[in-house]
# Entry
Amino acid sequence: MYYERENIKKMQGYVSGEQPEGRNTIKLNTNENPYPPAPDIQDVIANFSSESLRRYPPARADKFRELAASLHEVERSNIIATRGGDELLRLLITTFVNPGEAIGMTSPTYSLYPVLAQIQDCPSVMIPLNDDWSLPSNFTQQINEANCKLTFLVNPHAPSGKLVDTDTLTTIASELNSVLLIDEAYVDFVDADYDSMPLVRDNDNVIILRTLSKGYSLAGLRFGYGIGPEELIKPMMDKTRDSYNLDLIGQQIAETAISNRDYAMKNCHRVAGERNKLSESFLELGLTSEESQTNFLLVTVPVEFTFTAKQLYEELKAKGILVRYFADEKVADKLRISIGLPQENKKLVDTIKSL
Amino acid sequence: MYYERENIKKMQGYVSGEQPEGRNTIKLNTNENPYPPAPDIQDVIANFSSESLRRYPPARADKFRELAASLHEVERSNIIATRGGDELLRLLITTFVNPGEAIGMTSPTYSLYPVLAQIQDCPSVMIPLNDDWSLPSNFTQQINEANCKLTFLVNPHAPSGKLVDTDTLTTIASELNSVLLIDEAYVDFVDADYDSMPLVRDNDNVIILRTLSKGYSLAGLRFGYGIGPEELIKPMMDKTRDSYNLDLIGQQIAETAISNRDYAMKNCHRVAGERNKLSESFLELGLTSEESQTNFLLVTVPVEFTFTAKQLYEELKAKGILVRYFADEKVADKLRISIGLPQENKKLVDTIKSL
# Structure
């Protein structure tokens, strides 16, 4: 015990959503995509020879990087492939933030950010969002005054689902003195007009995070990537990344997924449609939700409702429906509910009605 | 560029062995196993449903951990499953060594260790081995005097192949003031009497690293694990590890591999036999090699030989045979040659003869 570093001893680890063993649970708690990944992926797996695992995999995942570069109209040198988005977040801290230097983020935000900051022994500067989940007008000023070296912005925002528009992002990027990571884990579900790629081209401090977990229905694969200027991508590629960070079968599946982007986007579009429908059904039940551009809804359980948010979470769980409840004060009266298949969403609404 | 940390800017990244695209190269440069992984793995892949990738994988790889615990007769809490051995090495540094604190190792050793130390901004204390590759008698004293918080010992040693016996390890573990990582990447090829498990049971500072890359013919999978006291394993499991560090298909393949240990060990035994034979063939060519307990030989090219080590590396490469040459002074007259299939080893010997 006495070997552990002080900052590690003091910190709490990240707590991920429940993953029930059984198949009968309706699982709306970890923002997984309800639709399967592209059918070509099954073919890739079926044709995969286990003997090819004998050798080390391509160390830099160049084939995937080429495909991603082509999709986003950048160069391969602007892409880094990572084990889920998580690895990219960790690499950004390792590469650009010395222990003791501050990392900026909003409050609330993706709860992994402050955990990763603590591992590097970095303080998290958490700027509270306005009541409507928008960024305070002096956001960049506060981040700069705290001397942050890196700023994490999840967009669309978790857990609210709100999208920051590209004009606002452009201003933030140009004003910030730090590297800006725009975490677009949920971007594939955006149905508003949004394109952040010009930000990468026009700034030397912007990296965009993408993941195959949500939009491509591949949470089990652990595959993501970053898009950014070569000056920021290169040290992570050449120095701080674990050598051979991506296995062979994972690389082949990821290549196939991104080559079948249209298939995935069709499913994302269906999810977005269901999201807007579900939001209306909730309203009929007396539950308001934030306008979301993601595959989840942050639902407020008003005081006049039969149950508190926590009670509703527990009642649903008892009926085999898992949603996410956060104890955090700002969202203690809310539930984060992932969008499921139409029949799952209907079951959810019917179940709440019946309680 | 100006965003990079000073220690990252200054350092060189790890350079992995060449991975030629073509299939015709005889690849004896990265210590891959020449035999395929267990046939059951092909079945697991064939029966894997891509739809199951839609969900997050088991976050803690508990099924694999149970199997490894059972194999080594320890508890699940004594096992951490990682993305290759590399992730375990990184986690040990992140968890137990503050930036600026020293990390002990031998010189030479696995060249990744000092790279990982630099990423954490830690000095590497490199204790030169004796000329016969044995540890100097005051090894632990030197490590302790340098206040190392963590010591990396690869055993059997790379690049010499030499095994440190368990009595010596026992003394080292009890004398060291730091965490001791025994990197057993090559242990499956040991044909001497060797069992380091009592070290984990009897000391609070010893962690053993195992990998499926070499012994189980799964370098392309990126799967390894650590065995150690719960007090050392737990903070890596709960705090510093990337959440969901292992993908679903990888976990299933690893479970199958370790369940088919006998199959893998039979191949390792064959490799060890070939190693001993190859060593004799080299001797007939005038090339001496260190006594190895691994799946490679460190071969000395004597001054009276037709070529220098570097020339021989290049001559072989021109003939489609890749071996490893290190520029490092201590091994500049040597080549590290992985053991291939019998016909590959024969081709290597015949080619050297013909030069």
